[in-house]
Design goal:
The complex is a heterodimer. By secondary structure, chain A is an alpha/beta fold. Helices cover about 35% and strands about 25% of the residues of chain A. In chain A, the strands form two sheets. Chain A has a six-stranded mixed β-sheet with strand order 6-7-8-3-9-10, sandwiched between helices. Chain A is globular and about 55 Å long. In chain B, about 25% of the residues lie in helices and about 35% in strands. In chain B, strands 5, 6, 8, 10, 11, 13, 15, 16, 18, 20 and 22 form an eleven-stranded mixed β-sheet that branches. Chain B has a ten-stranded mixed β-sheet with strand order 4-3-7-9-12-14-17-19-21-23. A two-stranded antiparallel sheet of chain B has the order 1-2. The chains are: A alpha/beta, B alpha/beta. At the A-B interface, α2 and α3 of A face α10 and α11 of B.
Chain lengths: ~250, ~500
């Protein structure tokens, strides 16, 4: 269970989050929708621990543990995964090496046995196959020369390998064509189950026809202004965010 | 450096941060009197029972050196060196031919064990006859080792195996005794005595180093390596290495170096000469890990080295690969003289500086023959308050028709108190030559670090990964086991450079 209470945060002295309250029970997928500048990306960075975001009030716990007190890598090891809106390029770093280093860093932090190169390759190939991706993906440098769609697919591949219990998908649908959208959505849906929860941050309703959320929240002006079932997304699509502000 | 896997374990096993090779071996040593004069030159020559021609060669160098000025054009600063305040010869007192491990000085054994050289090779290194002469049973590519401890080579391994192929691999002192004709023909033929201040000093007082001769058409069946260890206090190490690859031969040579952790600065002034005849290839790899000084900039080795290779024959090739992580001050420009038509020179370098380290390093490529090609790839990484300079010269002569050079210099900055500098010189007298130069400077971006951390890597693991990615083009040129070690070393050298 992810529990956010009265969360306020600033970036460069400017208050962006103005008291966010949200509960995401384990096993559920919630969507966060909202217009540009409403604080969606800030929320995802605050949850994953990026520097430069000052928490000025409130609390965030994940399965009862204070998330805000942890380093980003500690959050990752407890199961928090951020799928980046703009995945970062790492020149010269092979994707397979990166993924195995990440997986083993997390396993080490949890006191689990590390995965050797052969076992990792086998695991990675299974995931690639399930996601209908080519083995080439592993040989390339992390996100270097990837198209927008390939970068997002690489995020989903990482998620599939790291098997998080809380995935935060920050506008994962932006820049995706319909085929890529379907593959990415299937990747997320494949993880759904009692031990998985997700916050799907998006601008548009489109993604939510593929990843059907249990709840939809509207983030505006740094607060959750409305919550509802999956039908809320359709309503927003038809009427815009204007009605929510009222 | 041999025994890579073991070395890594040694590194990982060590609990304390920082430099892990900084221990000192207590062993009975023999020194020359402190200071530098003609008598010391004679003393060294006599110690090594050298022929008269070599003593004269040394004395001529010494006379030249006394008239020379220490160079000051490099972008490095260090207090004036008092050349009279050092020992120029220091050697462990040798016990005559130990037959088993039990008879070898236990302190020497311990030193090798600590440096991560495995038991079997350890046996050979300490001069035990018969051990480890069967490369097949070790289960991996064997590496023949020459171990130089302060001023002398203490042992060379796999000599019997190599001799079957006609390959000579021994210390240069032995080569002077046993192959004087080869030494006399090639010594100083690439780096003449008066070449520069430090090479000239080396020519006068060089003590030991490795000698390699690969006969015509022979492909050396194993990696050759020399492990340089400075141990004694207040002692300079002046090694001299000479590698000759005769027509159509091929050799890959590795060099590793470490020194104890001390508050004083110690001088290491080496000369390395390579000669490649027609169709011969020499691949020379270095992992330089001399003590870099502490976090406040106290102590560390002054590494003033002249390395040069001559591609004398047509289609010959000399390739330098260096990973420079150590030393307080590095002044080093491994170079190629591309004399033979269609000869090839390569320089792949990673230079890491942290804390108060200073490195001024690069290469010189002299294109003399037709269709000569050179490639320069330099990766400089600066952290802490260090300064890192790439200085390179590409010189193309009037007759070097069709010559080509490609140079790429990339600098990576970690933190905001370090410096990276690129100083490329190009002199071209041949209109048909093609010269390309690319240079970049970048920082490890905050978003790269966060991306890695969001995946579970801690900050140092993230820096290590990004830095290794940055150096990949160079690291892939190293022999595989060496590359693994170099990667670990890069991460260790940058410990504490972030956060």
């Amino acid at each position: 269970m992810l529990r956010i209470e009265g969360l306020t945060a600033e970036v460069e002295g400017k208050q962006i989050l103005k008291g966010v309250d949200l509960e995401l029970p384990m096993g559920e997928v919630h969507a966060i929708m909202g217009p540009n500048g409403s604080g969606k990306s800030t929320l995802s960075y605050v949850l994953s621990g990026r520097e430069g975001y000052e928490i000025t009030g409130g609390s965030v716990t994940f399965n009862g543990v204070d998330l805000l007190a942890m380093e980003p890598e500690e959050r990752a090891a407890t199961g928090v995964f951020l799928a980046f809106q703009y995945p970062v390029e790492l020149p010269g770093v092979g994707n397979a090496n990166f993924l195995r280093t990440a997986l083993n860093a997390q396993r080490r932090a949890r006191g689990e046995k590390e995965v050797d190169a052969m076992a990792f390759l086998k695991l990675a190939r299974e995931k690639l196959k399930a996601l209908q991706m080519s083995d080439e993906m592993l040989k390339r440098n992390v996100n270097v020369g990837f198209s927008g769609g390939e970068k997002k697919r690489n995020e989903v591949l990482q998620m599939a390998l790291l098997t998080p219990s809380l995935a935060i998908l920050d506008e994962t649908d932006s820049g995706l064509d319909i085929d890529a959208l379907r593959i990415v959505s299937e990747g997320v849906n494949a993880l759904r189950g009692p031990g998985f929860s997700a916050l799907v941050i998006t601008h548009y309703q489109r993604l939510l026809t593929y990843i059907v959320p249990d709840r939809v929240h509207v983030l505006m002006g740094g607060r959750i202004v409305r919550s509802g079932g999956k039908e809320l997304a359709l309503e927003l699509e038809a009427q815009g965010y204007g009605a929510s502000a009222a | 450096m041999p025994a890579v896997a073991e070395t890594i374990e040694t590194i990982e096993a060590a609990q304390e941060g920082g430099y892990k090779w900084g221990f000192e071996t207590e062993i009975e040593m023999e020194f020359a009197p402190k200071g530098l004069n003609e008598e010391i030159v004679r003393f060294i020559s006599a110690k090594k029972k050298e022929p008269a021609w070599l003593l004269e060669w040394r004395l001529k160098a010494f006379a030249m050196w006394q008239k020379m000025e220490e160079p000051d054009w490099a972008a490095v600063n260090y207090p004036r060196i008092d050349y009279q305040d050092a020992y120029y010869y220091a050697a462990p007192v040798k016990k005559a031919g130990p037959k088993s491990l039990d008879e070898v000085d236990p302190e020497l054994l311990k030193t090798y064990a600590k440096l991560g050289i495995p038991l079997k090779e350890q046996a050979i290194l300490a001069g035990v006859e018969g051990a480890g002469e069967s490369p097949a049973d070790s289960g991996r590519m064997p590496v023949a080792v020459d171990a130089v401890f302060d001023s002398v080579s203490v042992a060379t391994t796999f000599r019997g195996e190599l001799a079957k192929h006609g390959i000579i691999f021994c210390s240069i002192s032995e080569a002077v005794q046993e192959h004087p004709e080869l030494v006399r023909q090639y010594l100083g033929s690439v780096v003449p005595q008066g070449d520069n201040f430090f090479a000239c000093l080396n020519s006068a007082v060089f003590t030991d180093g490795s000698f390699v001769y690969i006969p015509k058409g022979v492909r050396c069946p194993m990696e050759l390596s020399t492990y340089f260890r400075i141990n004694a206090k207040s002692t300079g190490q002046f090694e001299r290495t000479l590698i000759i690859a005769d027509a159509g031969s091929h050799v890959s040579y590795l060099e590793g170096c470490t020194a104890p952790q001390r508050d004083e600065n110690q001088l290491h002034a080496a000369v390395v000469e390579l000669v490649a005849m027609d169709d011969a290839t020499i691949k020379y790899s270095t992992v330089q890990n001399w003590y870099p000084g502490d976090a406040e900039g106290k102590g560390g080795i002054y590494n003033f080295v002249t390395k040069r290779g001559a591609c004398r024959g047509a289609r010959s090739k000399i390739s330098w690969t260096q990973v420079e992580t150590g030393s307080a001050v590095t002044w080093k420009y491994p170079s190629c003289i591309l004399q033979g038509d269609d000869s090839v020179g390569e320089f792949y370098s990673v230079a890491v500086t942290n804390n108060f380290q200073q490195a001024d390093t690069g290469t010189k490529m002299f294109h003399i023959g037709r269709n000569t090609k050179s490639t320069i790839v330099s990766k400089g990484i600066s952290a802490g308050r260090s300064q890192n300079t790439y200085r390179g010269l590409v010189k193309i002569g009037a007759k070097a028709k069709g010559a080509r050079n490609f140079t790429q210099c990339d600098s990576l900055l970690i933190g905001d108190q370090c410096g990276a500098h690129t100083v490329p010189y190009i002199e071209n007298r041949c209109p048909s030559a093609k010269i390309e130069h690319e240079a970049t400077t970048s920082r490890i971006a905050e978003d790269q670090l966060f991306y890695c951390r969001a995946r579970g890597l801690n900050e140092e693991e993230a820096v290590g990964l990004i830095v290794n990615g940055f150096c990949r083009e160079v690291l892939k040129e190293l022999p595989m086991e060496f590359a693994v070690e170099a990667q670990k070393l890069l991460a260790i050298s940058l410990e504490g450079s972030v956060g």
